[in-house]
Design brief:
Layout lengths: L1 E8 L3 H12 L4 E4 L7 H5 L15 E2 L2 E2 L11 H15 L3 E2 L4 E6 L6 E5 L2 E10 L6 E2 L13 E4 L13 E5 L3 H12 L4 E4 L9 E2 L2 E2 H7 L34 H6 L3 E3 L2 E5 L2 E4 L3 H25 L23 E3 L5 E6 L3 E2 L28 E3 L16 H13 L1
Parallel strand pairs: 1-2, 1-8, 2-5, 8-21, 10-19, 11-12, 11-19, 12-15
Antiparallel strand pairs: 3-4, 6-7, 7-8, 9-20, 13-14, 16-17, 17-18
Length: about 400
């Protein structure tokens, strides 16, 4: 068994940031990445027209903060992938691609871990789990009851409208991916049915600045995990937002104006029909309230700090409230030939042979540090703060665990 001081599992932004710091310190390590190329999630789990949802200036990986000529723009998919490729090359980071980790187990002498991979076995003093929160597409079991002539795919496998058969499309999930894909499809002439949920809405810009800039200034991204109402709140949906075409608002009420049929939460499927809860108005109300709460927080911050920012009143759209609840949708009658599951992802740490997760399967840790010496997590939602997994904030958690690991 080859011995390596530190093994990093996952070559996304969290794994690469960890590698950067260890490289700067001259510490022996390797990254095991199961994909064959850099930027896997951005390269393979995003559609063709995808762009960053946060402005370019929010790219703040260590040693590679965005320094281009469009800080307030939104990098397209191909340039995001190129950024990761350059990052690995610039710092000569030791990424071993096409390597799947199948087991992590403590050594019998308690001095580290045995890591079994598709390319062999290793032992390490430290193991950093950097696989993130988006390991496995979330698709409900009742999808198996949908007729086989209906094309089904997860949002991570959607690429563009021409990929889909003719006819209407049912999108299940109205957070970032579902909203962006839905907009692209109806703008390309498709009839879209959209099953909504609890995803919040934010305006793209407010009072002269991008919403992300205000959220950074107000400390929104620095809210710590102990401020959440419950552990399950860690899994809340990402806000409805887009950076496409320079960034603009996404609003369910506007979708209604544009011809989209809104539905409540999906409740199941049987006999060629899909069932929905009669909760569309509740979902709309939650989305509307989230936006109102966000702008109220920003207004309060502006006033408290005497900031010179132009006054703005957002348009109060109500179109969605006039829509009748549909609790049953016959796929054939509605000419729906595609179902896109935009319900997000889940994660699985069963390959770690230690009691490391809570009842929700989430790692038990404090700011990424577990009770087991040398075992760490980075890059997951709400490890320490709201910004823990994103390009803007992942480095903060990484610095914390690297300091703990090497002190």
């Amino acid at each position: 068994m080859e011995t390596i001081e530190t093994i990093i599992i996952g070559g996304g932004q969290a794994g690469l940031s960890t590698s950067y710091h260890l490289k700067q310190l001259g510490r022996e390590h390797v990254i095991f990445e199961q994909a064959e190329k850099a930027g896997h999630a951005w390269r393979n789990d995003r559609w063709d027209s995808f762009t960053l949802v946060t402005p370019n200036w929010s790219i703040q990986l260590p040693g590679a903060h965005y320094d281009g000529n469009d800080p307030d723009g939104f990098l397209p998919k191909v340039e995001i992938v190129a950024y990761f490729e350059r990052y690995i090359e610039k710092y000569n980071l030791p990424v071993q691609f096409n390597t799947c980790v199948v087991e992590v187990a403590p050594l019998e002498n308690g001095s580290g871990y045995r890591v079994r991979t598709s390319s062999g076995e290793y032992q390490a003093k430290n193991v950093v789990m950097a696989t993130g929160s988006f390991q496995k597409p979330k698709i409900p079991a009742y999808s198996a009851t949908i007729p086989t002539n209906i094309k089904q795919l997860h949002s991570g496998h959607y690429r563009n409208p021409s990929q889909l058969p003719e006819g209407a499309v049912l999108i299940v999930g109205a957070a970032q991916s579902g909203m962006q894909i839905g907009e692209e499809l109806y703008q390309n002439g498709r009839k879209v049915y959209l099953a909504t949920g609890f995803a919040p809405r934010v305006p793209r810009r407010y009072r002269g600045r991008d919403i992300v800039a205000w959220l950074v200034n107000t400390g929104f991204f620095d809210i710590t995990v102990d401020k959440l109402p419950s552990p399950k709140a860690r899994f809340g949906a990402n806000p409805q937002a887009t950076g496409r075409d320079g960034g603009h608002n996404l609003n369910l009420h506007q979708f209604v104006r544009d011809g989209v049929t809104l539905l409540g939460h999906i409740a199941g499927a049987q006999d060629g029909k899909v069932l929905f809860k009669p909760d569309l108005r509740d979902n709309l109300a939650r989305s509307d309230k989230a936006e109102k709460d966000i702008i109220a927080m920003i207004d309060k911050y502006i006033e408290a700090n005497g900031i010179d920012a132009p006054q703005e009143t957002l348009v109060d759209m109500q179109d969605g409230y006039s829509v009748e609840d549909i609790t049953e949708l016959d796929l054939k009658s509605a000419n729906i030939n595609t179902v896109i599951w935009a319900m997000g992802y889940t994660f699985d740490y069963s390959f770690i042979k230690l009691p490391i997760t809570d009842e929700d399967g989430f790692p038990i840790q404090q700011c990424g540090i577990t009770q087991y010496p040398g075992l760490y997590f980075v890059g997951m939602n709400w490890l320490s703060k709201r910004k823990s997994p994103i390009l803007l904030g992942v480095n903060e958690d990484v610095e914390h665990i690297v300091t703990h690991m090497t002190r």
